[in-house]
Every structure is written in C-alpha cells, then in structure tokens.
Amino acid sequence: MLTIANQTFHSRLFLGTGKFSSRQVMADAVKASGTELVTMALKRVDVHASDDDILAPLLECGVNLLPNTSGARTAEEAIFAAQLAREALGTSFLKLEIHPDPRYLMPDPIETLKAAEELVKQGFHVLPYIHADPVICKRLEDVGCAAVMPLASPIGSNLGLRTKDFIQIIIEGSNVPVVVDAGIGSPSDAAEAMEMGADAVLVNTAIAVAGNPVVMADAFRMAVTAGRMAYESGLGGRQLKAEASSPLTAFLES
Amino acid sequence: MLTIANQTFHSRLFLGTGKFSSRQVMADAVKASGTELVTMALKRVDVHASDDDILAPLLECGVNLLPNTSGARTAEEAIFAAQLAREALGTSFLKLEIHPDPRYLMPDPIETLKAAEELVKQGFHVLPYIHADPVICKRLEDVGCAAVMPLASPIGSNLGLRTKDFIQIIIEGSNVPVVVDAGIGSPSDAAEAMEMGADAVLVNTAIAVAGNPVVMADAFRMAVTAGRMAYESGLGGRQLKAEASSPLTAFLES
Amino acid sequence: MLTIANQTFHSRLFLGTGKFSSRQVMADAVKASGTELVTMALKRVDVHASDDDILAPLLECGVNLLPNTSGARTAEEAIFAAQLAREALGTSFLKLEIHPDPRYLMPDPIETLKAAEELVKQGFHVLPYIHADPVICKRLEDVGCAAVMPLASPIGSNLGLRTKDFIQIIIEGSNVPVVVDAGIGSPSDAAEAMEMGADAVLVNTAIAVAGNPVVMADAFRMAVTAGRMAYESGLGGRQLKAEASSPLTAFLES
Amino acid sequence: MLTIANQTFHSRLFLGTGKFSSRQVMADAVKASGTELVTMALKRVDVHASDDDILAPLLECGVNLLPNTSGARTAEEAIFAAQLAREALGTSFLKLEIHPDPRYLMPDPIETLKAAEELVKQGFHVLPYIHADPVICKRLEDVGCAAVMPLASPIGSNLGLRTKDFIQIIIEGSNVPVVVDAGIGSPSDAAEAMEMGADAVLVNTAIAVAGNPVVMADAFRMAVTAGRMAYESGLGGRQLKAEASSPLTAFLES
User: Fold this and answer.
1) What is the mean pLDDT of residues C239-252?
2) Closest residue on chain D to C181 (Cα)
3) Domain spans of chain A?
4) CB-based burial of residue D23 (10 Å sphere; 0-12 exposed, 13-18 middle, 19+ buried)?
5) Residues of B annotated as binding site?
6) 3-state class of A100 per DSSP?
7) Are the C-beta atoms of B215 and A229 separated by less than 8 Å?
8) Band of the pLDDT at D250, cuts 50, 70, 90?
9) B57-89 as b/e: b if 16+ CB within 10 A
10) What pLDDT does residue B248 have?
C-alpha cells in the first residue's frame, strides 16, 4: 500500500480531470479507474457553489482531492492559489505546478523549490510536478515535500517515458514516493513506469481523449496493477543473446 | 473474442512451458495467467506415459495444447515432429519452429514456408514462429497458416518490441491473427503489443524466470487485457507539443 | 579497404540515383559523396542510346555501376532483368531487389534466395537487398552472394536503424560484407551503422531529397568515414553510472 | 561560424581533457579533433608552475581554455573556483559545473543559476553545464549566460542523446548557443546532436577512453562537421510509409 503524508492508497493510479467531454464521462472514468486521488485546477472549481458540477460527482465517488496550481507562473502565484484551494476544498494536499512557458508547460525548478519550501512551512502536503531531474527531486525531498512528480514527457504529448534513464535514477535515490506525471500515453507506458519501481502514476490526457474514456480508465487501472505486481515479483534481466525457452537438444535424433 | 482455425479464445495470452523451476510452479502460473493455450516442445512430453508429469497438470487446467517443433533445423525434421505430436497429443494445432542457428534461435523463412505448406495440406492448423518480416508473413498466410507469430526480439532476451515498426506493418496487412512471440520481457511489453493491434502474445521466459512466476503470470494476464481494451477503446495520438490537461487561463487574474 | 567480389573500394558509401531533381544535381552529389559504386534501376537507363542522360554523367565520374532489379516481383522477373542489365552495362555486379508489395517495398526472402542461387550460377556478383533477418542473410551467403544488404528501415522512410539488434547479429555472423541499405535518413544514421561494424551503407533518398543534395552527399561522405574510423579505433562501453571526466576530488579543500 | 561571447569558432567540437592515458595522447587528440576550445578542471592545472604539464601542450596547440568548476558542490565553491581560474589562466570563459551528487554528477539547477547570476556580474563568460531542462536553460540565458550546456546523458556514460526530446525544445527556444555536453558516446551521437541544430558538442570520455584516442578525435571532428552540414543543407522528413528511390513502374512489361 502506498502512503503519502498521512494518507494511504490502495490504488497507484492518480487521475487528472481536464479535457473530458462531459462531467458524466469524467465521473464514470474516475470510477472505472479505481483511483483514490484526483487532481483539478482550482479555477475549474466554483468554490462558492455548493452544487459545483465538477466537485459533486467526484465527492460522490469518494475520492480524495488533489488541487493543483496549474496556470501559476511564479512561486507567489502558486502559493496564493494553494491557500485558496485549501480554504475552499478543506484539504492540505497540493499538487504544485509552476510553468512559465505556455508552449510545453515545463515546470520551473527555481520557483517550484521556492514555493515548495514555503508551502511545507504552511503545513501543506506538497507534491511538486517537476522535470525528471534527480538533483531537484532530492532538494524538493529535503525541504519536506510529501512526494515528487517527475514528468515522463511533455504534458498532453502521450509520448510516454522519454525521461526513463533519469526516472530510474530518481527512484533509486528517493526517500519519498515517486509519482510519474505527464506524458503517459497508454496503459503500457503506465505499466512500464510501475515496473521500474515508480510508486504511482498520474494520467489525464490519455484517458480523457480516448475513444472510450471509461474503458480506457479501466485499462489503465489494470496496467498499473500489473506493472506494480511485476515490479514486486521481480522481472528477469534483458540480454541480447537468445536463450531457448524450449530445450534445444535435437529431439529427433534421440 | 479471438478465433484461430476452428477454436475461440477468451484469453489473448498464450504461454510457453519451458524454464519453470517445477511442474507445480508451471501449473500455478498457467492458472494465474488465465491462458487457454500453452505450447510445449514435443521432446518434453513423454508421449507414452499416461501420467506424464508435464502433460497431466496442463490437462487438468483445461488448457488447449499447442505442440511446437522447437529443435527442428529443417522442414523435414519439423514435419516429422509435427506428425508425432499430432498422434501423441490428439491435436492438429501446431506451432511451427525451425531455427538452424543455436545461438539466437532465429527462424528460417525458407524451411518454415516449405514446412507450413506441407503441414497445411496434411490438415494441421499451423502457427509459424517467424521473423517480423511482412512479406514472409503474407506468404505464410497465403499457403493457409492459421495465424502468424512474428518475433518481438530474440527468444529469451526479454528485450521487448524491437521489431515494432515491422509488427505494425504485419498487423496492417494480415488477414489471419497476429500473435507476437519471443522477447516479450515484461507486462508493459505485452500491453504495448496489444495496443498496436496484435491479436495475442506468447510469453514464456519472462514469466518462468520471474522472482515469483505465479504473480508475474497474473500481471501478464491483466496487462494483455489492458492493452487489448486500450486498442479497442482508441488511443489518442502522440505529439511533441504539449497540451494542458488543465486550463491555462491565468485563473489568478480573474 | 573494402573488397566485394573482385573489386576493391576506398569509399564505403554507395549511392542510389533515384529522386534527384536533375541529372546535374545527381552527378554533383555523386562526386561530392566520393562514392565508387552507384546503383540504378535498369528501366532508368536507355541501354541503346550512347548518350543516355543518366549513364553518361555517372561514367564520367568514374564510378562503378550496380544495376538493380527494382520493380521485379518474382525471381523470374529479377533474373530476366539481371541478364538485360549485364548485357547492356557490361558489368556482372547486381543488386538483387524483389519486392512484391508496392506499399512498403519489403524484400521477398523466398524469391530472393531462389534468384540469388540462379544468378550466382550464371556468374553474377549478387548483392541482395533483404530484410534484417540473420538466417536468410546466412543462406544468401551460403549460395554464393558477394555481400548482403539488410534493410535499416522501410525504403525511403528516413527512419534510420530500426533493425539495429538484428543488423548486429548479422554482422557478427557474416563472412561476406554487410552493406546496410534502405531507411538511412541522416549522416548520423550512416555513422551509427559503420560504428556497429557494417562494411558499407547505401544511401539514396536522404541525399536526393535534401535541401542541398550536394552538401548532404559530402556530409554523408564524412559521416561514413568517421563511423568507420570509430569502429576501427574502438568505441568505449556504455553504462548508466556516471564517471567523471574531470576529477572529483574536492579541489577547493586542498 | 559559431560565436560565443566575444569569441568566434570554426570548430563546433569542444574537448574535455580528463581520463587520457598521457599528456601526449591528449595533445595529439586535441590536434586531431581540430577543436579550438578545451575544458579542464582547475585542480588539474598547477597554476604556479610555468611548465605545467597539462597547460603547456594545450597552449602550444593554440586552443582556447575553458576552465571548469568540476568538483564544486555549491554556488559559493564554484564562484571561488571561477575566480582562481580567471586569475591563473587569464581567461573570463568559464564552464560552470555544480554537482552535489558524486554518483551521477547531475548538475544542481538552483546553485547553478545562483552562481551564474553572480559570475555574469563579475564579468565572466559563463557556460553552465545543466540538465536538459528547457525552463532552467531559459533562465540561465536570462541572467546573461553566454551559452547553455544541456546534458545528453550522465557524464561518462556514453549513452548518447537520451534527452533528445528536451534538447530539441531547448534549441527551438534558445537565443544563446546550445552546446550539448555529457554522455556523447560516439561520432554518430555527436552528428545527431548537430543535425538537430545544436551549436556545438563537448566530448571527453568517448575520445579519451577509445582504443585509439587520436583517430577517434579525428572521427569526431568529421562527424560534427557532417552533422552541421546536414542540418544546414536540410534533412528530409521521416515517415513510415516507404517511397521507392527507384521507380516502381514494372519495367519488364514495357
């Protein structure tokens, strides 16, 4: 079981809530995925309406909320958004996202570390979205982040584990959970991250824009479980030389 | 549901039976995998003993048998082995394997086509193990093979889908089921093959040599299902440019 | 120096002549590439005209001709084309190409082996274009081919060394020169093939469709030389763990 | 021609000086490479000896020196080392390297930005070694760095362009030269970086540990030139569908 801050999770699949064609599809996908943690941008939630159309179905599903600071370009903006989110949603969990560049939405390591340090002091459970950079991941851990969320490839690209070599180094060295975020494009990508020893993955676009998002969410659920089981049961090594699964003794000669 | 020759399959995971540490582990892995088709070298079966220690547990599991001609180096040897197998095991299903080179166990396209043509005439349901070569796959289909089994990477290498570009072309062009065989090293590899539209995968080494083969078999079961569901529900495209899952409108300014 | 059949070559870059925007550009690219062997489809040569507009500039460059059987779909067609080519061009060198499928132009191993066997008997120096299949390469060597030409990726795709793992096996096992053909999309692809130990590469599309084919031909010339030199001088191994190029002793403390 | 700060370079290959088996081999490799800029750790130079055995041969070659701060773990240490280097070697060029982790020698983005800002103020021409992180590269440019040096893969790993997708984004967005550093393992890797539009590459281990470092240096020289020429002359696109280089019209029927 996965523990982040004071919370335990049976499911190692986290979901994003953007890009779904309707609230109903989103809620059905959330259910099918088995997720216990969903992230959403503060802006998307009408924090004053008791019948907010995105929050209500999520709360019905019984999932935990992970508000994010998507859209923030500086530490200051992110901290302000985080405070609003905690007040509105009553949770100290926070996905910290700071991306000054609108084109590839890459995280800013300087602003992210600065905001993380402050938010931890303010009692947040901070999960920063960050480049797959082993050094900054370590520094985020050192200032008290509850987990790190290195990116697999650019947000929404569906390109999969392009940062594989560095994710491996991050996993090796991390004392907090490693949640692979952004760019996971298919169940096989998610399984691969889990096989490497990631603690969880966060998926959004690949499910939301699938032909059938609900079936895709179910597929991701199974793939994440499969990947974790494979990691735990011990994958064999890779090698170029073939080894026969079947015996090679020339049976016809016997 | 998958149909090969006159047989339908709910499971799209086929298993090999080599390299397991014991018969019991093998039988338990077969059950956990949910497979309905297992392959074994003729040599490994004592066809005269009613209590053969590999056959008995498999038959108890209720799986179909796919005898293979592993060890054959020529069409002639393979045809002889096939006939023995049919007589001994009472099945016309045959995995045709002809690999003259003991080092990498690569299939011989010339001998394989020759043997396939003859075996089809003799009433076998032939599933040939073959290089991921679109032209030879088409020719094997043309002489009446029930499926084609292109290799992902060298047998036992666990290297995964190194022939991906060619498997894609084979799937596009094939009128018989495409079963990806050899080199599948992890559940994510299996899921990836299924996401590309393969009809099934055959796995052996990655399960047999896993730390816990039974859990690994279960993981492959889920990964194959997940990959198939993803294929059917429609994966999104891949692109370098990022697209925000969460809206980018600068919410703090509103 | 590379020897194929009775001929030695200083340059390990072979060129195709298709797709160039003009004869002049082709001739200039041939010169800039330093190649000593160019291939052309028989059809493109007017064998009766003494002033054929493709042959003349090539012969002026002093390069050897390697007529190919592009367009042939069977062994029979290829053999007929080969005979015409020898008669018209006065060379026994032949690039044997048989591809029944017009979409991906993949070589047919069965027809290619059959034609190769016959053409060798007729005294041709046969260089077959073939899938990167180690077994069929070995069989082509066994029937007397002067070299083998495994494909890197589909013709004209510019996708580079997608068959790398298998090319490596082919190089390990071959007693005749291995010329990597088809799909080489950039000088780095060509260098990579040479670094692996390929004896030569054949390039066409990547040069012919470049913005500046003459400069690109020169770039390929250097890349092939560089790759060969790297192979001969011994590349270091690859490993994930870092090793400092500069010493790590904390120099500031001394 | 490449310009960094106030200096122009004909060669786009920079060299490191670590790991060579002898001073003579290093000097010969430097000459063979055609480089005009070599980097060395301050520690390795005896700044008080007029006949220092590493400096003398380099100065004889007429190359520019790029002292680096290898071994520094903080901005403070790096700044101190930079000042020593400038005083000792009489150059304001500086390769800024700060890597707190001895295992993979990954650069620290926080300390690097802090040091860069200060060193630029002190009049240095700063070339920071940094993760292939587009945001931090942009910030380093913004504080006045003369170039950015994103890593291809871990130092000394010879793994090549594992950060390719991100290097591409960095090149697209950068207004200062992009010098790909660390992990370049072969001439083909160097050519590939140049084909993508990198302004230069820095190579050390792959040359220093080669079987024949001098020949390898020459090979890198050609590969870098080839890659740059390919970039400038315009590479063709990549696509899966084949396109015949030779015409497909069935010439035998005419």
Assistant:
1) 49
2) D245
3) 7-253
4) middle
5) 156, 182-183, 204-205
6) coil
7) yes
8) very low
9) bbeebebbbbbbbbbbbbbebbbebbebbbebb
10) 38
Cβ separation C110–B106 shorter than 8 A: no
Domain B7-253 fold: TIM Barrel (3.20.20)
| Tokens matching residue A123 | 């009692």
Of the ranges A138-152, B33-47, D220-234, which one carries the lowest mean pLDDT score? B33-47
pLDDT at D240: 58
CA–centroid distance for B146 within its chain = 13
Tokens 């493109």 appear where? C44
Residue D133 zone, left/alpha/beta (φ > 0; ψ -120 to 50; rest): beta
How does pLDDT run across B1-21, given as a tens digit for each residue? 899 998 999 999 999 998 899
The region that residue C180 occupies, defined by phi over 0 for left and psi between -120 and 50 for alpha, beta otherwise, is: beta
Question: Any residues with CB less than 8 A from the CB of B129 and at least 6 apart, and which?
Answer: B68, B95, B96, B97, B107, B112, B149, B151, B181, B182
Are C135 and B106 in contact by the 8 Å Cβ rule? The answer is: yes
Domain C9-240: give its CATH architecture: Alpha-Beta Barrel (3.20)
Binding residue numbers of B for 1-deoxy-D-xylulose 5-phosphate? 156, 182-183, 204-205
Q: What angle do CA A223, D132, D183 make, to 5 degrees?
A: 95
Distances (CA, A) of C108 to B137, C144, C183, C184: 10, 18, 17, 20
Q: CA angle, A12 as apex, A9 and A17 as ends, to 5°?
A: 100
Helix residue spans in chain D (DSSP H): 23-33, 55-61, 75-89, 109-121, 134-142, 164-173, 187-195, 205-208, 213-233
- The contacts of residue A196 (CB under 8 Å, 6+ apart) are A164, A167, A168, A171, A231
**Which of C100, C113, C169 shows the shortest C-beta gap to B135?**
C100
* CA-to-CA separations, C202 to B193, C45, C98, C152, in angstroms, rounded: 31, 20, 17, 10
Distance (Å, whole) CA B147 – CA C5: 41
User: What interface predicted TM-score (ipTM) does this complex get?
Assistant: 0.89
pLDDT greater than 80 at residue C152? yes
> Measuring CA to CA, which residue among D94, D143, D148 is closest to residue D121?
D143
For residue B254, the model assigns a pLDDT of: 33
Q: Give me the residue label for tokens 């169940």.
A: A187
Using a CB-CB distance cutoff of 8 angstroms, which residues of chain D are in contact with residue A104? Answer: 134, 169
Residues C241, C245, C251, C252, CA torsion sign: negative
Catalytic hit among B19, B31, B43, B95? B95
- The torsion region of residue A105 among left (phi > 0), alpha (psi -120 to 50) and beta comes to left
CA distance D28 to C172: 32
- Are A63 and A38 spatial neighbours (Cβ–Cβ below 8 Å)? yes
Residue B95 appears among annotated catalytic residues: yes
- What letter represents residue B213's amino acid? P
pLDDT confidence of D249, banded at 50, 70, 90? very low
Average pLDDT value over all residues in chain C: 89
State the Cα–Cα distance between residues C224 and C230, nearest whole angstrom.
10
Q: Please indicate whether, in this complex, the C-beta atoms of C169 and B106 are within 8 angstroms of each other.
A: yes
CA angle B130, B133, B136 (to 5 degrees): 75
